[in-house]
Amino acid sequence: MTTSEVSDEDFQEILAQTRHFVRTAVIPREQEILASDRVPDDLREQAKKMGLFGYAIPQEWGGLGLDLSQDVELAMELGYTSLALRSMFGTNNGIAGQVLVGFGTDEQKARWLEPMATGDVVASFALTEPGAGSNPSGLRTKAVRQGDDWVITGQKRFITNAPTADLFVVFARSRPADADGAGIAVFLVPADTAGVQVGAKDAKMGQEGAWTADVSFDDVRVPAQALVGGSEDIGYRAAMISLARGRVHIAALAVGAAQRALDESVAYAATATQGGTPIGDFQLVQAMLADQQTGVMAGRALVRDTARQWVRGEDRRVAPSAAKLFCTEMAGDVADLAVQIHGGSGYMREVPVERIYRDVRLLRLYEGTSEIQRLIIGSNLVKTAQKERS
Ligand SMILES: Cc1cc2nc3c(=O)[nH]c(=O)nc-3n(C[C@H](O)[C@H](O)[C@H](O)COP(=O)(O)OP(=O)(O)OC[C@H]3O[C@@H](n4cnc5c(N)ncnc54)[C@H](O)[C@@H]3O)c2cc1C
Predict the structure, then answer these.
(1) Residue ranges of the Acyl-CoA dehydrogenase/oxidase N-terminal domain (predicted)?
(2) pLDDT tier at 180 (50, 70, 90 boundaries)?
(3) Rounded CA gap, 299 and 323, in Å?
(4) C-alpha angle with apex 34: 371 to 270, nearest 5 degrees?
(5) Three-class DSSP category at 320
(6) Mean of the pLDDT values across residues 254-258?
(7) Contact 71, 94 (CB under 8 A)
(8) pLDDT greater than 80 at residue 229
């Protein structure tokens, strides 16, 4: 079953083009991306032309219109190279874009989604604050109604693509949490609005070429039409649903990165020698390869099954968290083994597995840490059992 606007045949073409782009245009530039801490402009332009800034945005609004089952296949290809490439258009398709796709008014969609799909507008998702990361319901950014306007004040941190963003999708408290909800609304704030300030680019452990920064909002005035969906009660639900969908995508990205680490490991083991013997002939090295292969296969199967369950509406709570938990931890283990298989070379900057080891570390942290995924899985299982008993 497919819910997608894109036929299987057309999708296979998109997938093949993406694979070709990743393998022939991006992989040869990985060192350049790492050393310059930026994705070169010509690769950005090529990604724009291919529609990659809007692959998950519906066709009605100018995107390619892939559903989540197709999204994960694409993500497994994108994960095969520097994760900065995917990050460049990840917020438009994912956490920021899906808030608009799922909850925006037609007027808001018409204004923003088409330029996001072409890549002329970069949107950032601004939820996290100091002290409100794993628990965003504790966020302190405030939105106060003044006549027809809203005035937003607060601090966000670690915001992906903030240094290049044209639009911030900003979560802010419009009233205290009460029995009716979390009191969190979400607003569309153009980056050039007076009072919006983007901090210096963060110095990160990995994913060179993908940028994050603090963003501060100092009495930022936006019109009533900036309130997503025209309702104050949408924000928290929009964040949770967008993040749950994003977790399936991140799981797929992890599988792609793990596959690359495995392929690099096999190629190295087959050719590098010790005492004239290829290290791949040693059974202890073969055991590491076997564990990598098994992890990748299990991750890929889990991601595909989870995406299928999402598009059928069967499970949008437990499965996304289980897939993200398993696949991102698996990618960490596979990358660690890849460094081990490469010996001392695996610790050297020019070697792909060294980059992968650092790139994938982030996947266990953002869009919900592994601990938060465990809490979501466990609490939902118990709640369901309790409901069935009452
Ligand atoms: C490179 C990067 C890009 C990011 N991009 C974005 C973005 O675009 N937009 C955005 O809004 N945010 C973004 N984030 C923020 C990211 O989602 C948060 O960093 C993440 O959710 C963790 O929150 P925290 O950093 O506040 O850590 P904390 O929540 O303080 O977590 C610290 C530790 O405590 C654990 N912990 C916390 N609460 C519990 C609990 N209840 N039970 C058990 N353990 C717990 C965590 O699992 C973790 O091990 C990004 C972060 C990074 C590093």
Answers:
(1) 9-120
(2) confident
(3) 8
(4) 80
(5) helix
(6) 98
(7) no
(8) yes
pLDDT tens digit string along 54-93? 999 999 999 999 999 999 999 999 999 999 999 999 999 9
Rounded to 5°, angle at Cα 93 from 92 and 97: 60
Q: Indicate which atom in ligand 1 lies nearest the CA of residue 375.
A: 42
Beta carbon of 125 within 6 Å of any ligand 1 atom: yes
- The pTM of this model reads 0.97
Atom of ligand 1 nearest to the CA of 171: 11
Residue 52 near residue 94, CB atoms below 8 Å: no
Ligand 1 within 6 A of 358 CB? no
Please choose from 93, 369, 374, 376 the residue to mutate so as to test ligand 1's pocket, defined by most ligand atoms within 8 A of CB. Answer: 369
Q: Is 133 in the pocket of ligand 1 (CB under 6 A)?
A: yes
Please say if 367 is a catalytic residue. yes
CA dist 289 and 286 (Å) reads 5
128 ligand 1 Cβ < 6 A: yes
Q: Is the CB of 137 under 6 A from ligand 1?
A: no
Instruction: Return the residue whose CA atom lies nearest to atom 27 of ligand 1.
Output: 133
Distances (CA, A) of 85 to 12, 82, 133, 207: 21, 6, 24, 9
Question: What confidence score (pLDDT) does residue 2 get?
Answer: 55
pLDDT score, position 179: 85
Ligand 1: residue whose CA is nearest its atom 9: 159
The Å distance, Cα 205 to ligand 1 centre, comes to 15
Place 390 in a pLDDT band, splitting at 50, 70 and 90: confident
